[in-house]
Amino acid sequence: MVELETVLVMETAPIKFGVNATAEIGFDLRRLGVTRALLITDRNLMKTGLPDRVRKLAVDGGVQAEIYDGVHIEPTDASLAEAVSFAQGRNFDGFISVGGGSSIDTAKVVNLLTTYPA
């Protein structure tokens, strides 16, 4: 008789959440070896001040950080190309996404295409 595996292992990237978790972003970025980060967000979220606060926390934690706020809802090839163009040649070694799925998707594409240019 064949025994079924009863122990499974699933490894994922760490997820930090909770009250004031964002306050530790500088520490977390430095722990990952990031020295220069690009924060990727959209213009509507910029109006709330949240991306500026996150950037300041990163800078206060010892990480240089710039903001790109050109994310489009449901990113297009053109909007992704704009984001990649913004990041190219600026030597970012880390990416922060502030927002929803569009910001996350844009950050992933920018990371991929600036790390491994075509």
What does this structure look like?
- The protein is of the alpha/beta class and 118 residues long.
- The protein has one domain (22-115): Rossmann fold (3-Layer(aba) Sandwich), CATH 3.40.50.
- Helices cover 41% and strands 12% of the residues.
- It contains five helices and three strands; from the N terminus they run H-E-H-H-E-H-E-H.
- It has helices at residues 25-31, 43-46, 50-60, 77-87, 101-115, and strands spanning 36-40, 64-68, 94-97.
- Helix 1 packs across helix 3 (50-60) and helix 4 (77-87) crosses helix 5.
- The longest helix is centred in the C-terminal third of the chain and has 15 residues, at 101-115.
- 27% of the residues are buried.
Secondary structure: elements and pairs:
Elements: H1 25-31, E1 36-40, H2 43-46, H3 50-60, E2 64-68, H4 77-87, E3 94-97, H5 101-115
Parallel strand pairs: 1-2, 1-3
Helix pairs in contact: 1-3, 4-5
Output the keywords:
3 strands; three-stranded parallel beta sheet; 118 residues; alpha/beta; Rossmann fold; globular
CATH topology: Rossmann fold
**CATH architecture title:** 3-Layer(aba) Sandwich
What is Rg? 17 Å
The rough form would be described as globular
Q: Given the helix and strand composition, which structural class is it?
A: alpha/beta
